[in-house]
Design brief:
By secondary structure, the protein is an alpha+beta fold. Among the domains are: 5-165, Roll (PH-domain like); 177-251, no CATH class; 345-399. The protein is 42% helix and 27% strand. The strands form 5 sheets. Strands 8-7-6-12-11-10-9 form a 7-stranded antiparallel β-sheet. Strands 15-14-13-18-17-16 form a 6-stranded antiparallel β-sheet, sandwiched between helices. Helix 6 (187-206) crosses helix 8 (221-251). The longest helix is centred in the middle third of the chain and has 31 residues, at 221-251. The protein starts with a strand and ends in a 13-residue tail after the last helix.
Length: 489
Amino acid sequence: MTPPLVAPGIRRTSSRIVLVHTVTFKQARQLVPILIPIVAGFGFGGGLTTIALMAVGITVLSLAAAALSWWRFSYADGPSSVVITRGLLSRSVRTVPNDRIRGVEVEAPLLHRLFGLVRVRVDAAAGAAGEDEEVVVDGVSRAEGDRLRVAVLTHRGTPADEPSPEPVEEELSRWDNRWLLYAPLVGSYLALPAAALGALSRVLDDVPGDPVGDLFDVELPAAAWAVAAGVVGGALLLLVAGSVIGAAIVNWGFRLTRRGSSLVAVRGLFTRRHTELEIDRVRGVSVSEGLGMRLVGAGRATALVTGLADAARRGQLLPLGPRDEAWSLASLLVADPGPLRAHPAAARRRRIIRALVTGLAVTAGGLVLGARTGHWELAIAGAVVTVLGVLLARSLYAALGHAAGPRSFSVRRGWLVREQIVLERRAVIGWQVRQSWFQRRAGLATVTACVGAGSGGYAAVDMAAAETPSFTAAASGSWARALDPANQR
């Protein structure tokens, strides 16, 4: 159903969004800081009657706030800009030029889907100072959401009764449910079940007595250890199951396609998200692999898009899957710069020396303490830290690398999460070269490519200082030769 027009070119969202916002108390939640002191002042002397009256009052207040918000909200999309008008007492008109729009996301939470509605988010590099959210049109039909998405991405307004022809669609990747087995190896998917275990432990703390300690009754040692093993196994099973379920809820039905000049990603079990990005805005790709993911050959791929909000989620090309699949998608968007070049041996020595200094300091302290008290635990721990530190230092060095090709360049770093960035030459807007006193002594430098996408800067850590001018020039252009000390005299 086409939203009603209140004036030529100006549109309103569906009135059904009032019910959605009433049920979720979207506008009424902003009044909670005001209601708390009022409730505290009057108390709950009326018992259940007071609680029922408050529930009715809050519901009516939510309905009124949602109705007023819907009545005073309108939007318009034209050939040059998108205009959002909102507010009752304080009116706000926000205009976003079409050439500042970076992408569009159409999402349909479960409640919206029940009412046949969607929410359209427009990513634009034109936010006002202190503006937290992007342009959001909440509560339009699926057909209107698709029309608005096409209109703003093609930089022209298309009337709802004259749909534009759909461009040719090419599927790049499709979710395989077997990839859910990688989920327990990703820290972000373990966060929710870990929080659930933390809440469960707090509940156990509130139980009278010591239920955990009681398991280890000296009279039943075998049964106590069996129960303890069951508890630990159950906790691990909860972590694994929770991470798999969380990954399934977020990524179910993930599908990445190329539609004309745009990348389109659709995913989600309860909340379906339809994210569309202009390929011309893509400046590079990030492929990350956690420690556990590297052991099984898994990876994640994310597009680095200029001016994109919440880029870690909206820019995902492959949320989770085989490493080869991630690199295959990356090569479709950015040219391969070639094999990485290892950093000099001085970079490895720096890491090993730092590990040795820390480990030997702990060991020396443990030896002194052991000689005085007879307890050698700290000395043993120091020796273990020294050995593990050296192994970690070598792994950190092995993760370093950089490469520069005809059309792109790449940098890599990280151990717990190894991330390799491949960027187009046109992405670079500046270079930063830093050298600490120790780096200067070792002939090393940290070179950071400043870009207008992703995190804003990506560094080649501890590369040979003598290579800096040639690498920056090859990775961006001859203008970067100004970094050569010989050209600064």
